[in-house]
Design brief:
CATH architecture of the largest domain in chain A: 3-Layer(aba) Sandwich
Structural class of chain A: alpha/beta
Family (chains A, B): Belongs to the alliinase family.
Number of helices of chain A: 9
Oligomer: homodimer
CATH class of the largest domain in chain A: Alpha Beta
Number of domains of chain A: 2
Largest interface: A-B, 40 and 40 residues
InterPro entries (chains A, B): Alliinase_C, Ethylene_sulfur-biosynth, PyrdxlP-dep_Trfase, PyrdxlP-dep_Trfase_major, PyrdxlP-dep_Trfase_small
Helix content of chain A: 25-40%
CATH superfamily of the largest domain in chain A: Type I PLP-dependent aspartate aminotransferase-like (Major domain)
Protein name (chains A, B): Alliinase C-terminal domain-containing protein
Strand content of chain A: 15-25%
Strand order of the largest sheet of chain A: 1-7-6-5-4-2-3
Radius of gyration of chain A: 21 Å
Subunit structure (chains A, B): Homodimer.
Keywords (chains A, B): Pyridoxal phosphate
C-alpha cells in the first residue's frame, strides 16, 4: 500500500484490482451499465474523471484542431459545476459553451449528458447529435434508489461515483467505464499528471463496502441496500409531493412509471434533488432562504430564478424540518418577489 | 466519514482536524518548518497542491494582468514534472518558462524553489529575486533522512508530502503551509473544483501514522523513524560513493557537512536520488539502461544527457543489485557514447 503503483499490468496502473472487480460485479448485479470489456479508470471522485474525460477528448492527437479550444456543452438545466470545472484554469484545450440546446457552432464539440439529470432528475439523451460530437455520460444517479433501471447503459465514457451510489462522498472515489483504449489511456494520463493516482486507502475501503452491498443484493429486501434506499426515497418523495400539492406556490417535475429490472416492479424516479419551481417571477432560492431553507437557485443551472434545487439526501430529522418549513410558506409572501 | 466536509469551521473545510494537528506537531518535533499561525491545506499529494498554488498565485484577483499567462520558472536541473503539470491543460493563467537562471522577461512570474532539490539534492534559494516574483517552496525532501535540518523553513507557501516524509506514496496525501489567508483560500478553491476535497480514509491513516512517528521521536534512536532512516541513507550513500569512486566514468555531487538540529550532529545530505554525471558526451541514461539500470536522463530535468537521476529508495535487495550493476560498467564501453 505504500507504493504509487497498484497493478502495473493494468492500463490504469493506480487502480486496485479489488476495486476494479467490485465495480464490475456491482454493475453486473444492478444491471445499470455494461462493464464487460470496458476499461475501468478510477478517479478522485467523478469530478476529477469529468476533467480527465475533457482532457482525453480535447488533447493533442484527439483529432481536434489545436488552435481553438473545443466547445463543451450540456443541456440546461445542467449541473452547476460543469462550467466551473471546464473554465477555471482557462484551458486552451476546452471551453464551456453553455446550453446544448442553443449550440450552433460548426465543428467538433463535447456534450456532457447527465442522466438522471442533476438538478431535475430527467432521463436524458444527447441533444446536439452531430457527427463531430463526442459524448461524456455522467451516470452518477443511475442507481435503483433514484430511478428505475430500465437497461444496462452502454456509452463510450460513463462516469459513476461512490458518493452517489452508496453515499460515501468523503472517500473521493469515482470511476469511469471507457470503451476505447486510447481515450482510457489519456484519462489515466490526466490523473497521473494531476494527482499521481488515487488514494489506496479509499480504493480498498470502497472495494470492501461495494462487496458488502453486492452481497446484500443476493438477500431479502431488508438487507438489500438499493431496495431499502428505493423505499426510503419513495417515502420522502411522497411526503414532499403532499406538501407541494397543498402549496399554491411550488410545483415539481413529474416522472413516468417504468419497469425497474433490478427491483422487478414499476416505479417512478425519486431523484436525490427536488427541482422546485415557483410561480413565475418569484426568486425561488430567495423565498426559501427567507424561510431558512438553503438551496441552489436556477440561474446556477443555466435556467431562470423561479427554480431551485434542494437536496433530499439529508438526515431524517433535517428532511422533516425541511418539509415543515416548506409547508409554512404561504402565497401571501410578497417580500422577495422578483428581487 | 461519509460527508464531503471534515471541519466546516476551518478555512480548509475538507481537512481532518486530526491530520492538521499531526502535521503541526510533526513540524514542531522535527523543526523543519514554521507551522504556527500558518494555514494548513491538504491535497491529493503535493502534486495537486503545486497546481493549487499556481492557480492561487495566477488566478483573477491575484494582481496579475489577465491578458497573458504568468511565467513559471525553476532553476535547472529541476523536477521533471513541473513543466508537464504547468502546461498539460494549456492554461491561460500560467505557462512554463523554463530555467530560472535564463529568465529575463519583465513583469510578474512564479518561481518554484525545490530544496533539497529534485534531482540533485542541492539546498536552494530563489534565483530570480525580483519584486514581482511569487515563490512556491517545494520542501518535499526537507526531512532528516535526506538532509541536515539547519533551521525551521519560513516561506509564504511551503509544500510537503506524506510520500517523501514517511514513504506512504499510495495514500496521496500532501500538505501546504501557507502564510496568507487569501492565497490559502484560493488553493482550497482549486482543490474544491478539481476534486471536491481529499480522501478522508487517507487523511485519517496519515494522521495515525504521523502520530506514531512523532511518538517515536521522543524515544531512543532505534525507535526514531528519522534517525533510523538517516543512518540507512548514510549507509547507502557510503556504498554508492565507494562504487562511483572506483569507476572512471561517473561522478556524484558533493554535499557539505552541516549541523542537524534534529539529530544534534554534523551530517551531510543523503538525497533520495543519486544525480549521476557521466564523462562528457556520454548518454548517461542510455549507458545505464544498457546495463539494466532504469533512470531518468538529464534532459528531462532541463540539463544535458550526461546526467541521470536514480532513485535510492528502492528495497534493500534492489539497491544492492543496482550497485552491482553499476560496478560492472567499465570505461571501455563505447557503444552508446554520444548517441
Amino acid at each position: 500500500m505504500m507504493s504509487y503503483f497498484s497493478d502495473i499490468g493494468n492500463v490504469c496502473w493506480f487502480l486496485e484490482p479489488q476495486l476494479s472487480d467490485a465495480i464490475k460485479r456491482l454493475h453486473h448485479t444492478v444491471g445499470n451499465a455494461v462493464s464487460e470489456d470496458r476499461y475501468v479508470v478510477v478517479g478522485t471522485g467523478s469530478t476529477q474523471l469529468c476533467q480527465a474525460a475533457l482532457y482525453a477528448l480535447a488533447s493533442p492527437g484527439a483529432g481536434v484542431a489545436e488552435a481553438d479550444p473545443i466547445s463543451v456543452v450540456c443541456a440546461a438545466p445542467h449541473y452547476s459545476s460543469y462550467q466551473e470545472v471546464t473554465d477555471f484554469l482557462r484551458s486552451g484545450l476546452y471551453k464551456w459553451a453553455g446550453d446544448a440546446y442553443d449550440f450552433d457552432k460548426d465543428g467538433p464539440y463535447i456534450e456532457i449528458v447527465t442522466s438522471p439529470n442533476n438538478p431535475d432528475g430527467a432521463i436524458r439523451e444527447a441533444v446536439v447529435n452531430r457527427k463531430e460530437g463526442k459524448l461524456i455520460h455522467d451516470l452518477a444517479y443511475y442507481w435503483p434508489q433514484y430511478t428505475p433501471i430500465t437497461r444496462p447503459a452502454d456509452y463510450d465514457i460513463m462516469l459513476f461515483t461512490f458518493s452517489k451510489s452508496t453515499g460515501h462522498a468523503g472517500s473521493r472515489i469515482g470511476w469511469a467505464l471507457v470503451k476505447d483504449k486510447v481515450v482510457a489511456r489519456k484519462m489515466i494520463k490526466f490523473i497521473e499528471v494531476s494527482s499521481i493516482g488515487v488514494s489506496k486507502e479509499s480504493q480498498l475501503r470502497a472495494a470492501k463496502i461495494l462487496g458488502v452491498v453486492i452481497e446484500g443484493c443476493q438477500h431479502s429486501a431488508s438487507e438489500n441496500f438499493f431496495e431499502y434506499s428505493q423505499c426510503l426515497m419513495a417515502e420522502r418523495w411522497e411526503k414532499l409531493r403532499d406538501v407541494v400539492k397543498k402549496s399554491q406556490i411550488f410545483s415539481l417535475p413529474k416522472y413516468p412509471q417504468e419497469w425497474c429490472n433490478f427491483t422487478s416492479k414499476y416505479v417512478e424516479s425519486h431523484p436525490a434533488f427536488a427541482w422546485l419551481k415557483c410561480k413565475e417571477d418569484t426568486n425561488c432560492e430567495g423565498l426559501l432562504k427567507a424561510h431558512k431553507v438553503l438551496t441552489r437557485g436556477g440561474e446556477r443551472f443555466g435556467v431562470g430564478k423561479e427554480y431551485a434545487r434542494i437536496s433530499l439526501l439529508s438526515q431524517g430529522e433535517d428532511f422533516n424540518q425541511f418539509l415543515e418549513r416548506l409547508s409554512g410558506i404561504k402565497t401571501t409572501e410578497q417580500g422577495i418577489r422578483t428581487t
